[in-house]
Amino acid sequence: LYASRKGSPTEVVEAALARIEEMDSRLLSFRTVLTERAREEASDRTAALFRGDPLGPLHGIPVAVKELIDVADAPICYGSRVFAGRVAPRDAAVVASLRSAGAVVIGVTRSHEFGLGMTTQHELDGGTRNPWDTDRVPGGSSGGSAAAVAAGFVTVALGTDTGGSIRIPSSFCGVAGLKPTYGAVSSAGVLPLAPSLDHIGPIAARADDLRRVWEVIRRGKRRARSSYTEVSSLSEPGEVVQNLSIGIAPALNDPPVTAEVARAVASAQTALAGFGCRFVELQLGSADHIRAAFATIEMAEAYHVHTQRLSTFPARAADYGADVRARLAAAHAIDMNAYMWALFEAAKVRESFAQELAEVDVLLSPVSAGGPSTIERPDWVCHLGAEMSFPDLAMNYTTPQDLTGVPACSVAVGLDAEGLPIAVQLTACHGREDTVLQVAAALQRVLPLEPCPMQQR
After folding, report:
1. How far is CA 149 from the centre of its chain?
2. Angle in degrees, CA 290, 179, 278, rounded to 5
């Protein structure tokens, strides 16, 4: 559009702002819309475009940023009343990378409080709703970012992922989300949840768009881990996958999926078989065992962050939401022996994943065993006729990738009987974002999903 001079960043940003003003009161995907600053940036991008001097591959593209990630001079409260009134002093490194590539930061999206939950709901501040069905949660903790992309408010949004917080809401909102290799994106200026498990990545409607954003944020001057190495260049958008080996891991399929999720995974397998791909069964450990090690590490580190780094718990416990307050209180019981056991088990899981993933190009798996919970009862679902904790529905499927630090991409491939999206997850060896994005884009081309009803209006 810009190259043909049929539109300008100013026009696109104004359209996005108007759409947010008109429709976000129903979704509450944004915490703050940076209207005036976005207009100024759009004006600058338009002038540069007409001079023939674009800044980079995201020139004039409106983006949103999860409220755990600092945006200079914006109110960033981490989704909590504990930090009400806080203003970020500078851009996080990943936001600076987006701006340097020409992106326009249009606003700050809502997160589950401190990232410690997967519903993006708060008992006092309300919460974000799913654009496909506003009676459902969007998932979390990057629920605001996923909802904003699904509703067509922005092209791209940033999220964070410690136990599935990019992939789960991307799945439930019918968009694509990339959790990169651990350490591949700088965490400078990002509030930690559990530092050894935290990842920063993009959410977009299309995997090809994820690829473009990934090329920008992986090139930032500051990296969280200097040991991270880029394995290979990314494939070109539109390139078709051929003759890949696709792993499946039955031991990770716990809890059992619904028949609709099983059909969606089968449709992805059929599509990949059509590309000449072959399937290999991998011998990975049980999902429950992996989740237990993950949970111990996550909660021990989260407790340390809130008691030592932030020094807000238990001193400010009354200002926390009840669910997050209860999780941190329970984490107090995790002692050093338990934490060291979990680290030892995590090392074994990482070794197993490295060995097994080396035998295939990608691992194909569900993102969740079923669909999202309701706004009325966000923490519980009825799954296969039984009451289940909402985190238990999905986190066994998403925590292995965080514990092992390997890249994974969620991409929607179908709808359930209620018209809600179903996604699959693609996982690969460290540094192979190129492969998961290539396969995700191929699946989107052969299993296209209509935009959500809200985006069509």
Report:
1. 11
2. 75
Contact yes or no for 112/14 (Cβ under 8 A): no
Query: Which residue carries 């709901």 as its tokens?
Result: 121
Q: Is 141 a catalytic residue?
A: yes
Do residues 192 and 305 make contact, with C-beta atoms less than 8 angstroms apart? yes
Helices (H), 28-166: 35-50, 93-100, 143-150
What are the C-alpha distances in Å from 442 to residues 12, 135, 242, 414? 28, 32, 10, 14
Alpha-carbon distance of 356 to 358, in angstroms, equals 5
User: Of 8, 29, 66, 171, which is the active-site residue?
Assistant: 66
Q: Tokens for 321?
A: 């939401």
Closest by Cα among 315, 243, 273, 239 to 82: 315
Spatial neighbors of 206 by CB under 8 A, at least 6 apart, are: 176, 441, 444
Q: Which helix (H) or strand (E) holds 267?
A: helix 259-274
Residue 3: count other Cβ atoms within 10 Å of its Cβ: 8
Closest CA to 5 of 68, 52, 58: 52
CB-count burial class (<10 Å; 0-12, 13-18, 19+) for 456: exposed
**pLDDT for position 240:** 61
Here the tokens at position 267 are: 């449709």
pLDDT digits (tens, 9 = 90+) for 431-454: 999 999 999 999 999 999 988 888
389 is annotated as an active-site residue: no
**Would the pTM count as exceeding 0.70?**
yes
> Would you call 66 a catalytic residue per the annotation?
yes
SS3 381: strand
Phi, psi of 446 (to 5 degrees): -95, -20
CB 172 within 8 A of CB 421: yes
The catalytic residue among 8, 29, 111, 165 is: 165
Are the C-beta atoms of residues 361 and 245 closer than 8 Å to each other?
yes
* Alpha carbons 114 and 77: distance in angstroms, whole number: 9
Average pLDDT over residues 33-57: 95
State the virtual CA torsion across 310, 311, 317, 321 in degrees, nearest 10. Answer: 0
Q: What is the DSSP letter of 305?
A: I
User: Measured between alpha carbons, how far is 235 from 119 in angstroms, rounded to an integer?
Assistant: 34
For residue 364, pLDDT over 80 is answered with yes
Query: Which residue out of 141, 142, 186, 365 is catalytically annotated?
Result: 141
Q: Tokens at residue 406, please?
A: 């390997």
CA distance 293 to 285: 12
